[in-house]
Amino acid sequence: MTSVETQTGTAEAGPGSGISYSPDELMTVVMAREIRNDDLAVTGASSLVPVAACLLAQQLHAPDMTLILPSGVVNPRPGRLYRSASDGRWVTGAEAVGTGYDLFEMSENGRLSVMFYGGVQLDRHGNVNLHGTGYRDGRPSFRGPGLANTSFAVVSGRIILFSAHHTRRTFVDRVEFLTAAGHLDGGDSRARAGITTDGPVCCITPLVTFGLDDGAMTVRSIHPGVDPETVIDRTGFALPTAPPWPVTAGPTPDELDVLRRVVDPTGELAR
Amino acid sequence: MTRSPSRPPDAAARRTSKLVSLSEAAALVTPGSFVAVGGLWFQNNPSALVREVVRRGPGELTIVAAPPSSYAVDLLIGSGLVRTAYVAHVSFDHLGLAPNHRRAGETGTVDLVDCDEATVLGGLMATLEALPHHPVTSIAGTDLTRTSPLAAPRDVDGRGPVPAPPAMRPDVCLLHAQEADEYGNVRNLGTPFCDPLLAKASRTVVVTVDRIVTNDEIRSAPHRTVLPGYLVDAVVEAPYGAHPCASQGHYVHDEEQLRAYLHAGRTAETWRSEYLEPRVLGVAEGPDYLAAVGGAQRIDGLEESVR
């Protein structure tokens, strides 16, 4: 059963659980569990799930964590989710409004402990491509949006990767353009490049959570109700371990209640 | 005995107003200019000003924008006026890719220089610091170090080769903000993001605002002035001047018009016939433009519908 990635947006939890939730709600809850109380997190474009995950974590187990939106808005609390990262309504009720200079300061000095990246391509070593695919003579047949801040991949304490699309087109063996540094060639190549931070620690998709403990994506857990064959079919590189994999703990009633009542009362993630 | 009031008598010498018309402001962009475009994603795009530049048609432009940019940059690229673009990320955020930026990258019609925040802001900051280059140490391991001229390694202070973007000094900076007085004291009600940096790095700064306020109002809350007048050369009163993007406290971004833009952008030809002609070249800025996009009242009501 793979209904977790259907267009209708409703997934069934494990048999008999009686709880249903959308793929975005599941990814949000799973990602929120990765957020720590002492984190300073920065989000990027098209990042409703990471923003919601941080706001949920602040409500549940990480009240001290700081969230900064890519527009420089610090600790927003708008009482609902807005779909655009730059929506001005995130400002209302926030604690501060920084500038591009504040983000540049972090680009060079670090300070942030979590950055979230999605990608046109994500590869087995957690490298991110947002520039292009199908290069011939240096020109892409598909030009991506590019990335505002690649530095955060180097200076952020750790990186959480995510993708709403778990397909062979997205999850590739090797990115065609390395926009943001994951574990580069795997092993200790990140450290050998002089990068001292942890890099990608996990990648959350509608089907699985990948871990990157050895610098390569390994299925840490498969989401409730997902067929392992679907994961294998939709991943463009050979998975290091074979099923059965551990099953992701689905959202608890408490997690879903806080998510829907406090973070996302207008149901943007349920759509 | 009471002291004299804090407000001095009106000066005999009259201070010079920086108010100009939109077309006068747009004329500051001349062929071959290096233009800084303000805003980020759907906030504070100098949309009306950029449309007016496109109507005038100065070509061979070089542009730089905040690391996340959107409509105004894509419109300039689509108009065919841009030769070189220093842009890190251009998209319509959750609505989709920027069609003209994408096409330019795929066809090679514009030199899209691979950038990111550190390289763009580093280049602008070098200008502020009066340095030839600004080293950035944090883009290690990426292909930017291989492909981007901004990231070309240089030996800086004997630290060995590090990417060091050269100083960028735009000729003209185009910004949109919410309020200013006629002397160029500008207020942002939301995030100013990179706009102050772009302004300080540029030779000439033009700001459109939704509302002109009095100098007394500026003086009533000086800490709210984001760009003091000495940084600003020209001010244009342009209500709804950021449309179809947002202006904090005035109107939210117009997803219906932005989606129409994206739909028009499916090919270069349809973008020209369905957007550039009817929304830019074939309509005057101001009431005519507003009427063409459904009227001011519709834009005022968008806050209810835009999620």
Which terms summarize this structure?
heterodimer, A: 271 residues, alpha/beta, Glutaconate Coenzyme A-transferase, 7-stranded mixed beta sheet, 3-stranded mixed beta sheet, 16 strands, globular, B: 307 residues, 8-stranded mixed beta sheet, two-stranded parallel ribbon, 12 helices, 12 strands, 31% helix, 17% strand
Say which CATH homologous superfamily of chain B is assigned. Answer: Glutaconate Coenzyme A-transferase
Let me know the number of strands of chain A: 16
Determine the strand fraction of chain B and express it as a percent band: 15-25%
The biggest beta sheet of chain A, please? 7 strands, mixed
Describe the structure.
The complex is a heterodimer of chains A (271) and B (307). Chain A is 22% helix and 18% strand. Chain A has helices at 23-32, 48-60, 100-109, 152-155, 189-192, 228-234, 253-263; strands at residues 11-12, 20-21, 40-42, 66-68, 73-74, 96-97, 114-117, 121-123, 128-129, 132-133, 142-143, 158-162, 171-172, 200-204, 208-211, 218-222. In chain A, strands 4-3-7-12-14-15-16 form a seven-stranded mixed β-sheet. A three-stranded mixed β-sheet of chain A has the order 9-8-13, with no helix packed on it. In chain A, strands 1-2 form a two-stranded antiparallel ribbon. In chain A, helix 1 crosses helix 2 (48-60) and helix 2 crosses helix 7 (253-263). Mean pLDDT of chain A is 92; it is low at 1-16. Chain B has a single domain, classed as Glutaconate Coenzyme A-transferase. Chain B has twelve helices and twelve strands. In chain B, the strands form three sheets. In chain B, strands 1, 2, 4, 6, 9, 10, 11 and 12 form an eight-stranded mixed β-sheet that branches. In chain B, strands 3-5 form a two-stranded parallel ribbon. A two-stranded antiparallel ribbon of chain B has the order 7-8. In chain B, helix 3 crosses helix 4, helix 5 packs across helix 7 (195-201) and helix 9 packs across helix 10. In chain B, 54% of the residues are buried. Chains A and B meet through helix 3, strand 11 and helix 4 of A and strand 5, helix 4 and helix 5 of B.
